[in-house]
From TrEMBL, chain A:
<dbReference type="GO" id="GO:0005968">
    <property type="term" value="C:Rab-protein geranylgeranyltransferase complex"/>
</dbReference>
<keyword id="KW-0677">Repeat</keyword>
<comment type="function">
    <text>Catalyzes the transfer of a geranylgeranyl moiety from geranylgeranyl diphosphate to both cysteines of proteins with the C-terminal sequence -XXCC, -XCXC and -CCXX.</text>
</comment>
<protein>
    <recommendedName>
        <fullName>Geranylgeranyl transferase type-2 subunit beta</fullName>
        <ecNumber>2.5.1.60</ecNumber>
    </recommendedName>
</protein>
<keyword id="KW-0479">Metal-binding</keyword>
<keyword id="KW-0862">Zinc</keyword>
<keyword id="KW-0637">Prenyltransferase</keyword>
<dbReference type="InterPro" id="IPR001330">
    <property type="entry name" value="Prenyltrans"/>
</dbReference>
<dbReference type="GO" id="GO:0004663">
    <property type="term" value="F:Rab geranylgeranyltransferase activity"/>
</dbReference>
UniProtKB/TrEMBL annotation, chain B:
<dbReference type="Pfam" id="PF12799">
    <property type="entry name" value="LRR_4"/>
</dbReference>
<keyword id="KW-0433">Leucine-rich repeat</keyword>
<protein>
    <recommendedName>
        <fullName>Geranylgeranyl transferase type-2 subunit alpha</fullName>
        <ecNumber>2.5.1.60</ecNumber>
    </recommendedName>
</protein>
<dbReference type="Pfam" id="PF01239">
    <property type="entry name" value="PPTA"/>
</dbReference>
<keyword id="KW-0637">Prenyltransferase</keyword>
<comment type="similarity">
    <text>Belongs to the protein prenyltransferase subunit alpha family.</text>
</comment>
<dbReference type="GO" id="GO:0097354">
    <property type="term" value="P:prenylation"/>
</dbReference>
<keyword id="KW-0808">Transferase</keyword>
<dbReference type="GO" id="GO:0005968">
    <property type="term" value="C:Rab-protein geranylgeranyltransferase complex"/>
</dbReference>
Length: 369, 702
């Protein structure tokens, strides 16, 4: 049987990340691209630039799951992440783009990976004029960033919390940004973010939960809005939000579990809706949901592992949606995360609700000395 | 990202891709510049449209266009009609490139909510998209949005789903939308949409899908939904309680922890007071059980002093099972007297289901309580021997059913005669008809969904008949057939065998627990020579039965000693309702973590527990991490460490917090835990700290 080509995947991610960082610099200063990067500057990567923040989260989490997070330049990544923060408090998908809650979560998750959620606190204390308070941290970059922000008079986390909270609507739902699109994906993001920041009390959790429950369907799954069709990605968001708020009693675990386990098709892969093709990314959406409701043993573990491993590019590294398709960071992350949920040897455990390594989540949410 | 082949690209392709990329990059930079400079002239707008046509997912450009629309509309002499039409055109251009673009669909909604466009226009556009991709959920969502915005009737939309299904039944999206529309119509227009008639018609429709291609999943879930609509009622009712109505309880002293006598009832002495649980078990999770919705009358306990607790894993004040402890003061007890206790509920509508339906059937129960004078030999509370689960300590229960006073005479709670029966004739007729049809289907061809549906139909029928049956001899008539179907399914569809195995276990337990006669076959007398007491313990032994799931707990509320060892249990969810349990054997199962033992936290009377030979500590993934009370799900107060123990070493507490949360409120006397990967000297020392009442840990007397 094929094994996980972990080293190749690490190299693949580092290459993609490096290229992206050079490219994003170019979006600000129009110098010509160095020759070696020009070749890689394919249409596919430019078209994804608006969600660079998601890409950073996918790539870096994969590295952490494979025990290789230390190979990236942490300071460079963090300073780039902080440059994507908008003055409203939220984060954009890339520098110069508009803020959206989709990217705010990725930014918070990336900071969490590096144990740097205090970046957000530090800026707050700077705002309050307590510059000395954070000098105990020897991270020069933090101080640098904080001073820069202070000098520019930028607002920050103080507004990040209230920015997320302000996206909650009267019916408990959440909008993705100031333009008002409503989706249970945004409910999950708001809840996940605020829980990681210990600020869940800033929103009306009960109303948020009730809205998600209104999106429950005949098959036990959940849709984007009330009446929306069940979809594995959407189910992950809703089940995840209910898990984080301790509200899984609203889920019919047997009904949803049956629907989810029937996502496994003959090849062993999982699809996201009935009568659709299997895809590696559903290894995450379906599996994490099955784990949160304790029904993951209802699928065939070995067959799914084989399907994911068959989607690897064994020469260049990376994982694709289906065998022999082109690889990308998104599917590489979901493939590795799926293997983690299947307890594949050599891959760190990932938390099914927060979509971060278990040790990161425990570090944040469990009390320590 | 999806469906692109991995072929190594040819140099000329790379060239072309790079050219496209640099063109797009130039557009993006120019666009961002325009956006930041708030340029909304014609050229800038055209550039953003061009960008979105190539890359509809570039969300900032949609935001920009919204700003531009607002800017243009605010200009004197602006023409809203043409401004908004331009936006609709931009969206259509983007959707042609990618009709799964969230940003594009939302932009259209935004334009529409400004009061623009016509129903006809939107419906024509949707028709085009939905014909091209009948499963596009963006289009379906948009359709619901337009229908609501323009007040299109649900009947018309229902007709549309019929058309779509008749064109091609393999359209899960259409079935889904149908279920949403019908639920609304059944609720709001019951005169025009009588449930009985509508359901029959829907069954006909879905048969076409399932019987044409049994492997196509499109109709599977709709059929299951119809079945649920047929048999379940929204309103909650009480299905079981303890003590059973008409029973006579003898409460004896049980200060010494090991005398977990099963008959008569052991009690809960603390500080000279006797405690006795009253358990209410409903058909679904409900909220609102309290002293104003449940009345308890007795000479001892004042109703208003009772505290009703939901027995559930979450802290939201809802549960299927509820408990309150009656407290008797030892000083006032007259040992020659029998005391009557009366429990009644349903006089007020305060008890409601999670979706707000009030309790339908009122309920009243009376039982007698007698107290046994404390035995002078035992008053010092000395250890009278530990529980050993070896076979040799158990004897067949030989007495007849009438002699066994521990099992309530009637397992299932019968509805009072003056209430309408739970099942109507039309429900039974529908089920019989479906059963016949699926038997026919299976006689023609072996198929998984046929077998599974038949098993579910038979289960539903048995359950329905059970609540309707007014005699005391309840039987599940189709158990053998259902068990055989699940056994077949495990072979037919091995990928999902665990699902069928669990259904098999649940069916088996329904059969075992549905009557006193059946239960007695699994009741044994526990005799241990070390037990000086002459009383016998009755143990329900469900060991070695390949059980993968526990169920039918409503029939087992009376159990005080339970052996579930040598099964395949991963979860014990449901056990939290068994408030009388004092001895429990879970050894040799597949329990993977302490969080899976969360139900035990509710079992305050538990004294003897064996969880040896399980898989605790063996797995990196904890599948019950979010199904227990924990700081991760904000169901445990942030100061949980300070509550309880203070002498515990903090490093150990951080390491074993899951075990701490399960055990901290228990007063275990005996614990077997060997054979789990988590166990080592460090862990044992931790257990001794958090379980000060422990007298025996594995084979060691403390
Ligand atoms: Zn995918």
């Amino acid at each position: 049987m094929v094994e996980l080509a972990a080293e190749k995947h690490v190299r693949y991610i580092i290459t993609v990340e490096k290229v992206s960082y050079s490219i994003r610099k170019l979006t600000c200063c129009p110098d010509p691209l160095p020759q070696y990067l020009q070749k890689k500057d394919a249409f596919e990567s430019v078209v994804m630039e608006h969600l660079r923040m998601n890409g950073a989260y996918w790539g870096l989490t994969t590295l952490d799951l494979l025990g290789k997070l230390h190979v990236v330049d942490q300071d460079e990544v963090i300073s780039w992440v902080m440059e994507c923060q908008h003055e409203s408090g939220g984060f954009a998908g890339n520098i110069g783009h508009d803020p959206h809650i989709l990217y705010t979560l990725s930014a918070v998750q990336v900071l969490a990976l590096f144990d740097k959620l205090n970046m957000l606190d530090i800026e707050k204390s700077v705002l309050e004029g307590q510059i000395s308070a954070f000098l105990v941290h020897d991270d020069l970059i933090l101080i640098h960033r904080a001073e820069k922000n202070y000098a520019l008079g930028l607002r920050s986390t103080l507004t990040l919390y209230s920015d997320i909270a302000s996206l909650q609507n009267e019916d408990g739902s959440f909008s993705g940004d100031m333009w008002g699109e409503v989706d249970t994906r945004f409910s999950y993001i708001a809840i996940c973010c605020l829980s990681l920041l210990h600020q869940l009390d800033k929103i009306d959790v009960e109303k948020a939960v009730n809205y998600i429950v209104r999106c429950k369907n005949l098959d036990g799954g959940f849709g984007a809005t009330p009446g929306g069709e069940s979809h594995a990605g959407q189910i992950f968001c809703c089940v995840g939000a209910l898990a984080i708020t301790g509200s899984l009693h609203h889920v019919d675990k047997d009904l949803l579990g049956w629907w989810l386990c029937e996502r496994q098709v003959k090849s062993g892969g999982l699809n996201g809706r009935p009568e659709k093709l299997p895809d590696v990314c559903y290894s995450w959406w379906v599996l994490s949901s099955l784990i949160m409701i304790d029904r993951v043993h209802w699928i065939d573990r070995e067959k799914l592992i084989k399907f994911i491993l068959d989607c690897q590019d064994l020469e260049q590294g990376g994982i694709s949606d289906r065998p022999d398709d082109a690889v990308d960071v998104f599917h590489t992350y979901f493939g590795v995360a799926g293997l983690s949920l299947l307890e594949y040897p050599g891959v760190k455990a990932i938390d099914p609700a927060y979509a971060l390594p278990v040790d990161v989540v425990n570090r944040i949410l469990l009390p320590h000395d | 990202m999806h469906g692109r082949p991995r072929n190594p690209s040819k140099p000329e392709d790379e060239e072309a891709s790079a050219a496209k990329a640099s063109k797009l990059r130039a557009l993006q930079s120019q666009f961002l510049h325009n956006h930041h400079s708030k340029l909304y002239d014609k050229g800038a707008l055209e550039l953003s449209a061009k960008l979105l046509e190539i890359n509809p997912e570039f969300y900032t450009a949609w935001n920009y266009r919204k700003l531009a629309v607002e800017h243009c509309l605010s200009q004197p002499g602006s023409d809203p009609e043409s401004i908004l039409n331009e936006e609709l055109r931009a969206v259509e251009g983007a959707l042609r490139q990618n009709f799964k673009s969230y940003g594009a669909w939302y932009h259209r909604k935004w334009v529409l909510s400004k009061g623009h466009s016509s129903v006809d226009h939107e419906m024509r556009l949707l028709d085009k998209f939905q014909k091209a991709d009948p499963r596009n959920f963006h289009a379906w969502n948009y359709r619901r949005f337009v229908a609501a915005l323009k007040n299109i009737s649900e009947e018309d939309e229902l007709k549309y789903t019929t058309d779509m299904i008749e064109r091609n039944f393999s359209n899960y999206s259409a079935w889904h939308n149908r279920s949403i529309l019908l639920s609304n119509l059944l609720k709001r227009k019951a005169e025009v949409f009588p449930k009985e008639k509508i359901l029959s018609e829907e069954y006909e429709l879905v048969h076409q899908a399932i019987f044409t291609d049994p492997d196509d999943q499109s109709g599977w879930f709709y059929h299951l939904w119809l079945l649920e609509q047929t048999v379940t009622k929204d309103a909650p009712w009480l299905i079981s309680c303890w003590p059973a109505s008409g029973s006579e309880l003898i409460i004896s002293d049980s200060k010494s922890a090991s005398s977990c006598t099963a008959s008569p009832l052991s009690s809960y002495f603390s500080d000279g007071r006797v405690e006795m649980p009253v358990i209410l078990y409903f058909n679904q999770a409900i909220k609102g059980v309290n002293t104003s919705t449940v009345t308890v009358r007795s000479v001892f306990a004042e109703s208003k002093d009772l505290v009703w607790r939901p027995l559930s894993l979450s802290n939201f004040g809802s549960a299927q099972a509820w408990v309150a402890f009656l407290k008797f003061s030892e000083v006032k007890i007259d040992y020659s007297m029998s005391y009557e206790v009366e429990v009644s509920l349903g006089d007020s509508s305060g008890i409601v289901s999670l979706n707000g339906c009030p309790l339908t059937h009122a309920f009243q129960s009376k039982f007698m309580v007698r107290f046994q004078q404390p035995d002078s030999r035992n008053t010092d509370g000395q250890n009278i021997g530990s529980i050993s689960w070896e076979d040799s300590n158990f004897q067949n229960y030989e007495g007849g059913p009438e002699q066994c006073n521990i099992i309530p005479p009637c397992i299932q709670l019968k509805m009072a005669k003056d209430h309408e029966p739970i099942a109507s004739k039309w429900q039974v007729d529908i089920l019989m008809n479906e059963i016949e049809l699926f038997r026919e289907l299976l006689s023609a061809a072996d198929c998984k969904i046929g077998k599974l549906t038949l098993a579910r139909l038979l289960t539903a029928l048995d359950t329905l008949m059970l609540y309707n049956d007014t005699s005391n001899s309840c039987q599940m008539r189709h158990t053998e057939e259902i068990l055989a179907l699940y056994t077949d399914l495990m072979k037919l569809d091995p990928s999902h065998s665990q699902y069928y195995r669990e259904e098999h276990s649940l069916t088996f337990l329904r059969q075992v627990s549905c009557s006193k006669e059946n239960l007695l076959r699994y009741c044994w007398l526990y005799r241990n020579s070390a037990l000086s007491d002459s009383r016998n313990l009755v143990c329900l032994r469900l060991n070695n039965l390949s059980l993968a799931r526990v169920g039918s707990i409503e029939n087992l509320l009376w159990v005080q000693m339970l052996d579930l060892s040598h099964n395949e249990l991963r979860s014990i969810e449901g056990l939290e309702a068994m408030q009388l349990l004092s001895c429990l054997n879970l050894s040799n199962n597949k329990i993977k973590s302490f969080t899976a033992l969360d139900p035990l936290r509710h079992l305050k009377s538990l004294k003897v527990l064996n969880i040896s030979q399980n898989e605790i500590g063996k797995h990196s993934v904890d599948t019950t991490r979010y199904l227990c009370s924990s700081p991760l799900s904000h169901t445990e107060a942030s100061d949980w460490r300070r509550s309880g123990l203070c002498s515990t070493d903090d490093a150990q507490l951080s390491k074993y917090w899951e075990a701490f949360l399960v055990f901290r409120d228990l007063t275990l006397v005996q614990l077997g835990i060997t054979g789990n990967k988590v166990v080592n000297e460090d862990f044992r020392s931790f257990l001794l700290k958090i379980l000060p009442t422990l007298e025996r840990l594995d084979d060691t007397n403390l």
